[in-house]
Amino acid sequence: LKEENASLRSKINKLQIFSETQADKMRKLEKKLEENKIKEEKEAQDLEAMVQHVEQNLQLMTKRAVKAENNATKLKQENALLQVQLKNYKTENEALRSGQSASLAVVKQNADLALQNLLTVITNSRSSIKQLISGAESLQLVADLLKSIDRISEV
């Protein structure tokens, strides 16, 4: 009985040591699991913040694009008006040459003024159109970025 008792005690000690080892492994795995959860939550928060930032940039770029488009439309209208004025000035210039109106100097001055206005409008129109194109390219970049974010979140 003593031998059997000693043998059983030895087995109990071995089982206790094994149990403690398993408990240590379990605690380490639980700790690692908790660290992974925290890391994943942080990554999710970072990704959400990035998405919000991209959405804000997209809204800002959309506003800029709309403003540039409105500006381009306004400049096109102004350009058309100035072209009509230029045509009128040219007609007046021709009438002056035929002796039906005021002096040639006034017509030349009017034509020069119309030309200057027309050149200014053309320059402003080009700038606005470039801004509009730039805004559209930026919107395309943001759209591509959002597609990439969707793919990342799927992965």
Automatic annotation (TrEMBL):
GO terms for cellular component: centrosome; ciliary basal body; early endosome; midbody; recycling endosome. It comes from the Eukaryota. One of its GO terms (biological process) is positive regulation of cilium assembly. The keyword Coiled coil applies. The keyword S-adenosyl-L-methionine does not apply. Belongs to the ENTR1 family. PANTHER family: ENDOSOME-ASSOCIATED TRAFFICKING REGULATOR 1, ENDOSOME-ASSOCIATED-TRAFFICKING REGULATOR 1. This is Endosome-associated-trafficking regulator 1. It comes from Spizaetus tyrannus.
